[in-house]
Amino acid sequence: MANSWFLYDNSGSVNDPQNYDAVSGNPNCPQPKQRLCAIFAEVQLVNGTDRPIITGTLQAEIAAALATKTESANVRLRPN
């Protein structure tokens, strides 16, 4: 399976694949790093739309990034 960046649409749970939109290339996530911007995840097709597969490991990575305000390999942050 392929992996891709997905932008978080800020509309609900960070663990819900429906709240992300696929982007080509690297996402634009400016400073300061405070809130979720994007995740890098495996792609799944849901109702004809690319959505991320959010594993337990990725959920933990998202939670850690938000708690520490520190990006990781698969999680990017943006300003408020």
Strand content: 35-45%
Q: Total number of β-strand segments? A: 5
From N to C, what is the helix and strand string? EEEEHE
Q: Tell me the major beta sheet.
A: 5 strands, antiparallel
Question: What is the global morphology?
Answer: globular
Q: What is the arithmetic mean of pLDDT? A: 95
Secondary structure topology:
Blueprint: E1 3-8, E2 20-23, E3 35-46, E4 49-53, H1 56-68, E5 75-78
Antiparallel strand pairs: 1-2, 1-3, 3-4, 3-5
Q: Can you characterise this structure?
A:
This protein has one helix at residues 56-68, and strands at residues 3-8, 20-23, 35-46, 49-53, 75-78. By secondary structure, the protein is α+β, with helices and mostly antiparallel strands. It has one domain (3-78). A hairpin with a 2-residue loop joins strand 3 and strand 4 (49-53). The chain is globular. It starts with a strand and ends with a strand.
Quick recap of the structure?
The protein has 80 residues and is of the alpha+beta class. It has one helix and five strands.
Considering the chains and any ligands shown, give keywords for the structure.
80 residues, alpha+beta, globular
